[in-house]
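Subject: Sanity check before I submit

Could someone independently write out the structure tokens for this chain? I want to compare against mine line by line before I put it in a report. The sequence has 254 residues.
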Amino acid sequence: MTFHDHYSAVAGRYASYRPRYPAALALYLADLAPGRERAWDCGTGNGQAAVALAEAFAQVVATDPSAGQLSHAQAHPRVSYRIGRESESGLSPRSADLVTAAQAAHWFDHAAFHREVARVLRPGGILAVWCYELMSIDPAIDTVVDRFYRVRVGRYWPPERKSIEHQYRDLPFPYPDLTAPAFTMETILDRAGLLGYLGTWSAVQRCRAAEGIDPIAELTPEIERAWPDAAERRRAVWPLTIRLGRAPGDEAGR
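---
Independent answer below. Compare away.
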């Protein structure tokens, strides 16, 4: 598969405006894994998941094919960033307790990724991939954002985005699915933060390139009407959808 880089051009904004994954998720995955020596975060972007995992694992290897994204990755003493596709972890066989892909698996060559997962996971190791759709703030704002997503920039979403709308249930998965508890990402935004986040969407980048105009500038007056106080800060919540499985082997091999 050809790598289509949708984010390098906005990597700095992506690092600033994308929400962070909850620490509770990293701890939950660490408790499931056969050990806490090493995790591989594939398609790490600028490291949001990798840094969270580093609080629970001795080493996190975080790979992404986008040099632009990695140039804005958050440094952490237990995270090693490497350029690499989903088939290029650079890890030794059976050396990872956990493999993750956060809001990234819909871009993958799944056969290549699953071969690499099978190679690097220890017996009983955990594979976890997750995604998120639209946030919830309040009904008035949510209606404006949903219309922007589906109508204004809807035709510019890459086809892989459909897998997120299907909550990754349409993607191949190599192990029997385990049931995961519900997790959410939450953050406090002001109005500029919301617009900044929406500006990182791949459909927005494609719309700008195709039409030569900025759809965020068109959207701004609608958001201002729904959110009149620019300084007011509001809670935004993104539910996470997680697919979770365990590699064959000794589940208790800790």
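---
OP: Matches mine. For the report I'm noting this point. The chain has ten helices and seven strands.
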